[in-house]
């Protein structure tokens, strides 16, 4: 039978009383001041003594604390960096997973709403942000992990580079993720926040730099007994009643302050308290010096039923790539089915590497040990553990990557590798050089378009008629200028209507401020190039001065022109017009088709795509400035529809038909039939010929009403002759 109404389901029943009234029943203040948690696990080091050789010699088994960061290779913003700067870098609309401290549950919030909460003085809840991953945002370029982390991170040295470089999505949506995007996190916590005991996903290690504020950590080593106690504690469901640090033999509490850098090894169970508002940068990484413990943590996650959303992305796939990289580097055999472009880069890199090795052999042919790469015991035992772990997984969870053509020969090669290197000497493995390292590539920064294998951004371009083999248009200008308002046309000089969608959303009128757009009726009809625009040939501005020079006051218009095809800004006299003359656009200021594009025929080939974009920007519904005006195809008259004349005080008030007819009858400037004899886009004509009535056009008629008028620079043109008639 059909259901007449859709059923609604609520999860309120799943919330226990302790989640509603408060999460913890133990006294957290007593845990902060107690003398009980005085272990001796954390090792304080000098930043100058920290390098890759430390991991090769000792592994990564104990937490490390650095009070200075000059020699760590870490890059973070200055102390003046604020939450507002984070919002500007990642975007106001970025959705955050925010933890409610009292319930330890996640809620979603925009970055703008989070900033408002963080900076407010009266907070009704304790909220905490610990999972803002900001790779592929503007913030990515001003934060860099320590040098050692970049040398051993599997994402940097194991995951296929072309997959990571193809990532475009800034958020951590798993469907759009091309690599484990867990390298750069921003943690923003208000005073009083507490995160209960946990193990970082996938057994990842953590680097952690406190930019502002302070933190209190409770640390528990990942011994087998402690891990079993942790599993029991999680499965018991009594985390709010029991402070896990009281149940283990040893637990250390440590205070971290602004400027400290902290490293947490694989599998360490820890809780965090925030005594004051804090801003922290950090990142998670898998590496080859704690593989066995990483796999043990993966088993703990299975036992405690951790949802996939809170696990390390592509964990099993990463293990396959680790095996392949070791086989590739040490046995010179590849098992990856790379795309053609990447395969060519690989062959070129191998050729250069062989040339370097041949040179080294001629210089030092007497030492056979120099050719052999020694592995540490952490790496050898880890490779064995990976093979055993993958073998233990059911076929449905083996997750063999598509790039690995056949996993069976790969496993056989790993066994061969372990046999060859089982007598490696640990002291010779301390080279301070990473074993796994990709060949040198051009750095890819956020904001740069990736070029696909077909040679076009975003894929192959669809051929059009006879222009399939035609050369591409000229390169875009090195600098694109954002045009500014002319401040003279009717839309620029009017007030906000307070009735359109954008006005209603403005914070000044009580809206949320999400859209961040000016009033629909205030979009400039004649936007100009900014004063800082210069000619790409002579580097002079529109008044023939250098930008930084002191210039006399000059009200004359700028003589710069911007090409609508290649977007280069230049003076008309600076370009060679011997082959063709530039075509000026009368409907748009400081715009033309430059002689170079005209001589190549790009003005005809790209006319439709360019004109449509410009007309929609000038004369769409969003740029309506009062009365909607239509041109009658029969008599060439102007008819006002729907809205009132701009003589109204608010400019955006709507009238009924009777009042509109009365106003137009009494107003000498508003006539129901006035022939149009000039360019309908000329804002000055709207003021002079129509009084205070503004001139606007509907989007449906814009294409037929306003074709792109062109005029040749020089003699009087046809368009000017028609206008003069």
Account of the protein in words:
The protein has 725 residues and is of the alpha+beta class. The protein contains 24 helices and 18 strands. Strands 1, 2, 3, 4, 5, 6, 7, 8, 9, 10 and 11 form an eleven-stranded mixed β-sheet that branches. Helix 11 packs across helix 14 (407-420) and helix 13 (377-392) packs antiparallel against helix 14 (407-420). The radius of gyration is 33 Å and the shape is globular. It starts with 16 loop residues before the first helix and ends with a helix.
Q: Which helices and strands, and how do they pair?
A:
Elements: H1 17-21, H2 28-33, E1 43-44, H3 52-58, E2 64-66, H4 83-90, E3 95-100, E4 105-110, H5 111-119, E5 127-133, H6 147-152, H7 154-157, H8 161-165, E6 185-189, E7 194-198, E8 205-220, H9 224-236, E9 252-257, E10 261-264, E11 269-285, H10 291-303, H11 315-331, H12 340-363, H13 377-392, H14 407-420, H15 426-429, H16 490-493, H17 501-505, E12 561-563, E13 569-570, E14 583-585, E15 591-593, H18 595-600, H19 602-605, H20 607-619, E16 628-631, E17 638-641, H21 657-666, H22 683-690, H23 699-705, E18 710-712, H24 718-724
Parallel strand pairs: 1-2, 12-15
Antiparallel strand pairs: 2-10, 3-4, 3-5, 5-6, 6-11, 7-11, 8-9, 8-10, 8-11, 12-13, 14-15, 14-18, 16-17
Helix pairs in contact: 4-5, 11-14, 13-14
């Amino acid at each position: 039978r059909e259901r007449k109404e859709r059923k609604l389901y609520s999860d309120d029943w799943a919330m226990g009383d302790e989640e509603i009234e408060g999460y913890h029943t133990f006294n957290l203040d007593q845990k902060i001041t107690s003398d009980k948690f005085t272990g001796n696990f954390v090792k304080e080091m000098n930043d100058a003594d920290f390098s890759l050789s430390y991991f090769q010699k000792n592994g990564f088994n104990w937490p490390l604390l650095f009070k200075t960061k000059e020699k760590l290779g870490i890059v973070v913003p200055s102390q003046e960096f604020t939450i507002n700067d984070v919002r500007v870098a990642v975007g106001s609309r970025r959705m955050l997973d925010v933890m409610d401290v009292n319930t330890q549950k996640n809620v979603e919030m925009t970055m703008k709403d989070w900033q408002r909460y963080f900076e407010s003085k009266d907070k009704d809840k304790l909220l905490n942000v610990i999972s803002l991953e900001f790779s592929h945002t503007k913030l990515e370029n001003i934060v860099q992990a320590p040098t050692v982390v970049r040398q051993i991170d599997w994402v940097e040295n194991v995951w296929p580079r072309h997959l990571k470089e193809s990532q475009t999505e800034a958020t951590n949506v798993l469907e759009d993720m091309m690599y484990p995007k867990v390298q750069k996190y921003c943690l923003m916590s208000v005073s009083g926040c507490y995160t209960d005991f946990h193990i970082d996903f996938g057994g990842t290690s953590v680097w952690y730099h406190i930019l502002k504020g302070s933190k209190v950590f409770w640390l528990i080593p990942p011994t087998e007994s402690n891990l079993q106690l942790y599993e029991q504690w999680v499965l018991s469901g009594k985390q709010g009643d029991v402070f896990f640090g009281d149940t283990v033999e040893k637990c250390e509490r440590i205070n971290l302050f602004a400027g400290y850098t902290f490293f947490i090894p694989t599998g360490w169970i820890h809780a965090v308290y925030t005594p004051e508002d804090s801003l922290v940068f950090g990142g998670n990484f898998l590496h080859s010096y704690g593989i066995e413990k990483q796999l043990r943590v993966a088993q703990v996650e299975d036992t405690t039923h951790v949802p996939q959303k809170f696990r390390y992305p592509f964990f099993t796939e990463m293990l396959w790539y680790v095996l392949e990289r070791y086989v590739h580097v040490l046995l010179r055999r590849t098992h990856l089915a790379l795309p053609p472009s990447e395969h060519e880069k690989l062959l070129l890199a191998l050729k250069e590497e062989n040339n370097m090795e041949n040179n080294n052999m001629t210089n030092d042919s007497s030492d056979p040990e120099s050719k052999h790469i020694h592995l540490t015991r952490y790496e050898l035992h880890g490779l064995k553990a990976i093979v055993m772990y993958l073998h233990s997984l059911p076929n449905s969870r083996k997750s063999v990557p598509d790039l690995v053509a056949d996993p069976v020969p790969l496993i056989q090669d790993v066994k061969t590798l372990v046999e060859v290197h089982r007598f490696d000497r640990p002291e010779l493995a301390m080279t301070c050089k990473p074993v796994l390292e990709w060949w040198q590539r051009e750095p890819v920064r956020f904001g740069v378009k990736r070029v696909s294998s077909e040679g076009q951004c975003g894929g192959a371009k669809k051929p059009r008629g006879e222009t399939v083999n035609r050369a591409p248009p000229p390169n875009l200008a090195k600098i694109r200028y954002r045009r500014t308002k002319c401040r003279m046309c009717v839309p620029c000089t009017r007030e906000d209507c307070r009735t359109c969608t954008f006005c209603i959303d403005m914070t000044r009128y009580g809206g949320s401020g999400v859209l961040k757009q000016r009033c629909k009726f205030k979009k400039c009809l004649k936007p100009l190039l900014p004063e800082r625009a210069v000619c790409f040939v002579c580097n002079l501005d529109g008044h023939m001065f250098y930008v930084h020079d002191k210039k006399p006051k000059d009200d004359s218009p700028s003589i710069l022109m911007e090409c609508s095809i290649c977007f280069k800004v230049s003076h008309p006299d600076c370009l060679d017009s011997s082959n063709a003359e530039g075509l000026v656009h009368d409907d748009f200021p400081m715009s033309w088709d430059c002689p170079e594009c005209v001589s190549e025929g790009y003005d005809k080939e790209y006319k439709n795509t360019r004109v449509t974009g410009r007309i929609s920007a000038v004369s769409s519904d969003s740029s309506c400035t009062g009365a909607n005006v239509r041109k009658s195809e029969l008599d060439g008259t102007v008819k006002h529809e729907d809205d009132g004349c701009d003589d109204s005080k608010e400019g955006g008030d709507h009238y009924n038909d009777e009042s509109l007819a009365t106003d137009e009858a009494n107003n000498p400037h508003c006539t129901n039939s006035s022939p149009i004899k000039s360019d309908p886009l000329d804002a000055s004509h709207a003021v002079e010929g129509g009084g205070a009535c503004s001139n606007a056009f509907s989007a449906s008629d814009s294409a037929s009403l306003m074709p792109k008028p062109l005029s040749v620079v020089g003699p009087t043109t046809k368009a000017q002759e028609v206008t003069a008639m």
